[in-house]
Amino acid sequence: MATADDAAALNAKLEQAELLGASMTRRIHLLVLIHGLSSAIRLRVHALFDDYSGMWGTCEHLEELANTITEVHSNPPSRSGSRLDAGVELDVLVAQSNQSVQTYDGIDWGAERVVGEVIRERIQAIQSSGDTVIRFSITGYSLGGLVARYVVGVLHHADFFAAVEPVNFVTIATPHLGIPRYPTTVSSIHAVLGPKFLSRTGEQFWAMDKWDGPDGRPLLDIMNRRDSIFFKALSLFPHITIYANCINDTVVPYLTAAIETEDPFLAHSVNGIEVSKAILASRKLDERYSPIIESYRLPDVPPPPPPQTRLLSLAYIESLRRKIFVPSVLQARWPFNINRTTVRFQYGLVHGSVPVRTGSLRTVAPLLIARLSLDSRASRERIRLLEANTSRSDYLSSSLGRVEDAGGVSKQDNDAYAGLRRPAPMANGNAGARGFHLENPDEAQETNFQIEAISPRLTPLQLQMAMNLNSIPQLKKKLAYIDGVVNSHAVIISRDVKRFEVHKKGRGVVRNWAESFVL
Predict the structure, then answer these.
(1) How many Cα atoms are found within 13 Å in the side-chain-facing hemisphere of 434?
(2) β-bridge mates for residue 348, sequence order
(3) Domain ranges of the chain
(4) Direct distance between the N- and C-terminal alpha carbons of the chain, in angstroms, rounded to an integer
(5) The pTM is what?
(6) Which helix (H) or strand (E) covers residue 299, if one does?
(7) DSSP 8-state code for residue 310
(8) DSSP letter (8 states) at residue 218
């Protein structure tokens, strides 16, 4: 017969077993990384154009992000302040369900694919192993940032955050305001061809889509309204950070990446703007985070314009050499620029049917345009089939598309934004609690004619989106000043350090992102 002592001993053993079982259950903080706009054409022009193909991306481009944050948080107890409490492990998912030309299918359909990958694949796999996802964070690069904002809207609509705590939301070089229009011929051409060649995604970039019906509003408009599910979901995250390039981003310029209505860096080469690098609490420059800047200021008196170089002089030719982009494989003369990668490029571009002489851009360009047209047509056919699918009611775009509050920019909004349409340039800026702000707004300088001539013209809708997003109190902005490069869009995430030495310039940004991550 069992005695009371035996029962107490048995209970102690059971309690110990329960504790042991609980200790074997991992508590997971899931981090999702989302890449930017991809294209099957990138696989064909990789060797020739990759160092300038800022919009073309794959999962491999996030390798530096994934490796760095895994390294930084591989032993979280050793990093004070990097976690909310002990016993939480980081699990990194680089989303792969939206690669290649599928990114042409729109922010919404791309996000739906990523949600399926997160819920039906990764989280179910974690739960089936007896572990639990208790926290969720997401980081999106370029287009991936917009996809991330839609993803959290879908998750919030499904009550995902009732059981899982949202923690970090980060975007890097993301066009939050869409693509701004500049008073240039190139910008006008992009605005016409982009929505055609990039299918639904292009229409959403330039706010030409009607997401919630034939007479509806653009998706970016809906996502940035304070009463939308997307805006509410974004506001749930206690740590919201956006990284933006100050200069040299020819894909996602400063205004839209930093959610600003004026650009003090637009004429950085002539306006005398001064920048300071990231600073630690000790007020010493922290080279680890270079090229992130702590502050910037414009001089009280603009510097004199640089002397004009004489036409065809050595200085003139040197300035052209710095401005004109030359693909890496064309920097040697014919025929020494032939190698295995360029031959593979020729074969892949035309599927082996038409040989292309390396370096003949006049031949390549029409083929690229033709390929983009075919990819866009294929995307529109995929979208048609998706929208015709009887199970489409499961998607957020169907359940919310006509439920969101209707209406465009009101007269009151227009009156409020009227004074922002031609804002004075920033004077002095500092990185405060929410990012960069004016130290002395009353001292803003007059814009000279040359700068005014190239300044973008933000629409009332873009001004409204900027105002709404900047109203989020926990939103912080970090700026990267990457000079000496043709296009900083790829450099900011160190997209391909194996092939391009210059991409290492962005490692300070990646390091800052990883070490600022709250586990």
Answers:
(1) 11
(2) none
(3) 24-261+326-421+457-516
(4) 52
(5) 0.77
(6) none
(7) P
(8) -
Nearest to 417 by CA among 76, 177, 74: 177
> In the numeric block, which tokens belong to residue 33?
């990384």
Q: What are 399's two structure tokens?
A: 């359940």
Burial tier of 469 (Cβ tally within 10 Å: 0-12, 13-18, 19+): buried
What's at 189, amino acid-wise? Answer: I
Residues 20/113, Cβ–Cβ less than 8 Å:
no
Residue from 252, 332, 264 nearest 302 by CA: 264
CA–CA gap between residue 248 and residue 266 (Å, rounded): 9
Question: How many CA atoms, within 13 angstroms, populate the side-chain half-sphere of residue 489?
Answer: 25
Residue that is written with structure tokens 């005398």 in the block: 272
Low-confidence ranges of the chain (pLDDT < 50): 10, 14, 17, 20, 39-55, 76-84, 328-359, 390, 393, 401-428, 430-450, 453
> 279-312 burial by CB neighbour count: b if 16+ within 10 A, else e?
beeeeeebeebbbbbbbbbbeeeeeeeeeeeeee
- How many angstroms separate the Cα of 387 from the Cα of each of 203, 217, 375? 17, 18, 18
What the block records as the tokens of 519 is: 């586990």
Residue 254 contacts residue 246 (beta carbons within 8 Å):
yes
3-class state of residue 425 by DSSP: coil
Amino acid of residue 307: P
Q: Report which DSSP code applies to 285.
A: B
Amino acid at residue number 50: D
Q: What gap in Å lies between CA 85 and CA 441, rounded to an integer?
A: 42
Dihedral sign, Cα of residue 103, residue 188, residue 503, residue 49 = positive
